[in-house]
Design brief:
With about 600 residues, this protein is an alpha+beta fold. It has 14 helices and 31 strands. α7 crosses α8.
């Protein structure tokens, strides 16, 4: 165990984690140069295209340092707030972390959030400034005395609590300083502690589905050992299984012979053979089950369910694609246990699914994968959050406004803590967003040449257009991270949209009372713009708390039924006009309100 080092790379989005991981693979010769490609550990096409890590990736490397051979287990983690729970589980699987900061962008919101998680997990943190090749002088040497680099180095050292000399200057692009950083990780990050229990015990920090092996769990061994012939139990779900295969990530799966085993301190995988991904939970404890009673007593600390916080209903754009949508979501669910999927029905759009996500990015990634990988075009409802509704002595949880009971007493909504880091000159612009996005408990701190703004905000505001508004008000120079705190009583109202006096399912929304009328008018105007005219007048109304707060009318199409008449008594025309009026009333009485999917999709755009 003394020659094992387990560590992660943590950073804000797009600060160069995956590029640094590439250089580590090269330095340790884990991957042959002829097989290397950029962002080697990012296997999804979408990860490469967006330049972000979506799925964490572990890899086992061998490296010689001062004449001693070491086993280095690296986990490349996602950088976005949506995946903070998965990041926290990976931090519990290691003893050290490389905190990476882009020297051209400085300390960002997720830098602070990841550092807090690392310190809470008791990790040894090694700081590194990336992309320092940007500061090279005309002779090709890095100018470490550059004022911006000096200020950032000082801020990062203060954040970690180390001397400025201990901050590394590297370039993931050119490889400068990478070997020295890896050497420092070996010297500073402690080896795994000795095993406490005699039996095998491990933490599941990730999982994915394999058609032949079933659910494959990425594990960190804490105690004892696991062999390829053991029977194991997953504590949280009380699921028993006989192992099909164990092995290492190199980074491809390398199976171990039956005679070999994973021992305390190592990171590897276990092919469980289980076909139901619901049985494997991220953060759960795996025990070698022979002679183990009361398995719950031996669970490792920190497990909790990864709870979805954003809910969106998906419907196929073409009703014939329902089965394709079903298959696509089922396959995504196999490799993404955080997805929460339930069947749903909409009178306009037909059958679909209500899907729960970890955040807005998680939703956008899933929708894009459905379109690219499974060729399914979808119509999505407004993103919503989980509300708690008090009715008498009972509490209900609802997502869709249509689920709100008539006799409710109170509505409570989830609140988040929001960390925003931005240049000082844009602070007033962001504070100006306070009313629109319902900020509360706003505080500011100086962070070098930047401002750290800390506030609280309803989660519902985050999943609307907060990201876009923040970028617009700071010219893209701000970053943010968030964590869900608790529920608070909300002053929100349900707003329904009616066409020809019928409520249109899927267009109902919860809105803050003070903006409900304004937003309702916008929706009514957009609906009038996109709905086709009919033979009768169509009233479009927005209703809140039993009152009509906005209305527009789409006038009826007019056909001249008397055009062929000439001369004669006017009473002949009157007869035809009255007959036309009766026909329109009959049509209106029999007609059902129908909104084409393309119109519905246009209305749901932000």
């Amino acid at each position: 165990m003394k020659n094992i080092r387990n560590f992660v790379i943590i950073a804000h989005v797009d600060h160069g984690k995956s590029t640094l991981a590439d250089r580590f693979l090269e330095v340790t010769k884990t991957v042959e140069m002829r097989k290397m490609k950029a962002q080697y550990l990012d296997q999804l096409e979408l990860e490469r295209e967006r330049g972000i890590t979506i799925k964490m990736a572990p890899v086992r490397m061998r490296y010689e340092h001062k004449g001693t051979n070491y086993i280095l287990n690296l986990i490349d983690t996602p950088g976005h707030s949506d995946f903070s729970y998965e990041v926290s589980r990976s931090l519990n699987a290691v003893e050290g972390a490389v905190l990476l900061v882009d020297a051209t962008q400085g300390i960002q919101a997720q830098t602070l959030a990841n550092h807090r998680l690392a310190k809470a997990a008791g990790l040894t943190v090694v700081g590194a400034l990336n992309k320092v090749d940007f500061f090279k002088d005309s002779a090709g040497n890095i100018n470490l005395d550059d004022e911006r680099l000096f200020t950032l180095r000082k801020s990062l050292a203060e954040l970690i609590g180390v001397d400025e000399k201990e901050i590394h200057h590297i370039s993931g692009k050119t490889g400068d300083g990478v070997r020295e950083l890896l050497d420092d990780v070996i010297e500073k990050v402690p080896p795994p502690q000795k095993s406490v229990e005699a039996f095998g015990r491990a933490l599941i920090f990730d999982s994915f589905f394999d058609d032949h092996k079933g659910v494959v769990a990425s594990i960190r061994m804490f105690d004892g050992e696991i062999t390829g012939e053991d029977e194991i139990v997953m504590v949280a779900t009380n699921t028993h299984s006989r192992i099909k295969e164990i092995g290492y990530f190199m980074p491809q799966l390398i199976a171990l012979p039956v005679s070999e085993k994973l021992t305390a301190g190592e990171i590897g995988y276990v092919a469980t053979g289980i076909r139901d991904p619901e049985k494997i939970k991220i953060g759960d404890t795996v025990l070698v089950s022979k002679n183990i009673r009361d398995a719950e007593r031996f669970a490792l600390h920190g497990y909790k369910e990864a709870m979805p916080v954003v809910f969106v209903s998906f419907y196929p754009e073409e009703s014939d694609n329902y089965e394709a949508l079903t298959r696509g979501l089922q396959k995504l669910k196999l490799n993404d246990s955080a997805l929460h999927i339930e069947p749903d029905q909409n009178e306009v759009l037909g059958r679909g699914f209500k899907v729960g996500f970890l955040g807005r990015l998680h939703f956008e990634i899933t929708a894009e994968r459905l379109r690219r990988e499974f060729k399914v075009e979808t119509v999505n409802t407004f993103p919503s959050v989980l509300y708690r509704v008090k009715r008498g002595n009972d509490w209900l949880t609802i997502v869709k406004p249509e689920e709100l009971p008539q006799d409710f007493d109170e509505i409570w909504e989830p609140i988040i803590k929001l960390d925003i880091i931005l240049p000082n000159e844009y602070l007033s612009n962001v504070i100006a967003l306070q009313r629109a996005f319902r900020f509360s408990d706003l505080h500011t701190e100086t962070l070098g040449d930047r401002v750290h703004l800390i506030t609280q905000m309803p989660l519902a505001e985050l999943v609307s257009d907060f990201d876009d508004q923040l970028k617009s008000s700071t010219k893209g120079m701000a970053s943010f991270s968030y964590e869900v705190l608790e529920y608070e009583k909300a002053d929100v109202v349900r707003v329904d949209i009616l066409v020809s006096h019928e409520v249109i399912p899927g267009l109902s929304r919860f809105l803050p009372r003070e903006v409900a009328t304004r937003e309702a008018r916008k929706m009514v105007d957009r609906l009038k713009e996109h709905l086709p005219r009919q033979q009768w007048t169509q009233p479009i109304q927005a209703q809140a708390e039993g009152k009509i707060v906005a209305r527009e009318d789409i006038p009826a199409l007019r056909k001249d039924v008397t055009g062929y008449l000439y001369g004669g008594d006017r009473s002949r025309k009157m007869k035809l006009w009255k007959k036309q009026q009766r026909g329109k009333k009959n049509l209106e009485a029999r007609a059902q309100v129908q909104i084409a999917p393309e119109v519905f999709k246009e209305l749901l755009k932000r």
